[in-house]
Amino acid sequence: MKKKDGHVHTPFCPHGTTDELEAYVEQAIKENFDSLTFTEHAPLPLGFKDPTPSENSAMKLVDIDSYISEIQSLKDKYRNHITIHTGLEVDYIKEFEKETTQFLNKYGKFLDDSILSVHFLKLDEQYFCMDYDEKTFGLMIDVAGSLQNLHSMYYRELIHSINSDLGNFKPRRIGHITLVNKFQKIYPVTFPTESTILNVLQAIKEQKLEIDFNVAGLRKEYCGETYPGEWIAKMAKKQKIPLIYGSDAHSARDVGKNYSNYDQLTSGS
């Protein structure tokens, strides 16, 4: 089986490091990866205001051409060493499907492999970035009425993203499907979630999509597990839904981190 890191960020990320693109590639080669997909946060849809304090959730639209061009240069330089894919992590945002589709129609022809993620939820007529920090997450719980309500809203939005029509260039991989668990050590889940997760997996299977097996949660202080967790990943594997390893690296040193978790889960029958 070829070794792939399908979720890697870049210096174009305003909330990441300034590590050069080449440093990410060199780390992937050092870790014996055959393939690497750069999936920078796509520019947010026109008309959408980033709710984070620094408004730094995604790259700027003015940078997209340089991003594509620089990755193409790396493809040429490293073509005999590693396969490099141009991709994006695209946000699914309620009420901005049209703008997202227009963006993908314009830039999708340059993309090889991308991810569709839910980071933003609209609660009581206001958008929140649900994984920004634990205080924001706590506020979202208050607005939603309970942690269980917030989970229900998140997974409902996730299913909307899975079933959404974003045109011919819609990403085929769904990002970190249990991101709502990022702060679970502070806000533990004490209610059943299995039926909800089964609905998510069923939707992914019906749409013939992939799952981002994202190990970033292992690096997060209040999470401590992959997105999705082991039992969900095993269920996805049983249903023959492709699981693609993603380091979600925002620095070169994290490329390939915790790959063993993915390898142990997916190897064998």
Automatic annotation (TrEMBL):
SUPFAM superfamilies: PHP domain-like. One of its GO terms (molecular function) is histidinol-phosphatase activity. Its EC number is 3.1.3.15. Gene3D superfamilies: Metal-dependent hydrolases. Pfam families: PHP, PHP_C. Residues 5-214 form the PHP domain. Belongs to the PHP hydrolase family. HisK subfamily. This is Histidinol-phosphatase. The lineage of its organism: Bacteria, Bacillati, Bacillota, Bacilli, Bacillales. The gene is hisJ.
